[in-house]
Design goal:
alpha+beta, Putative Se/S carrier protein-like domain-containing protein, Se/S_carrier-like
Length: 90
């Protein structure tokens, strides 16, 4: 399976927040999937959302406009590159 770049990985404070994110995106034309948090982002267990097909400028606006809680948003720009942190909650 080949990956399409760029894509975003959004981490959440809990699985509950990830499921709330999922319910907000269902029925929208945004391609997403809940996945285990990649090890290059965190060694902790958890659920992240992999989001494709939305510009970087819109992803954080969408999350905040919908009142969704998250820990961080990373972008994967190309294969074999480390993910780039674009926004984190302090």
């Amino acid at each position: 399976m080949t990956e399409k770049y760029p894509f975003f990985m959004i981490t959440f404070p809990s699985v509950h927040h990830a499921l709330k994110f999922e319910s907000k995106l269902k029925g929208m034309e945004i391609n997403f999937q809940l996945v285990p948090v990649p090890r290059e982002i965190s060694t902790s267990c958890g659920v992240a959302a992999k989001v494709e097909g939305i510009p970087e400028s819109e992803i954080c606006d969408f999350i905040e406009k919908n009142g969704l809680e998250y820990d961080a948003v990373y972008v994967y720009d190309a294969p074999k590159q480390k993910p780039r942190l674009i926004k984190a909650i302090e």
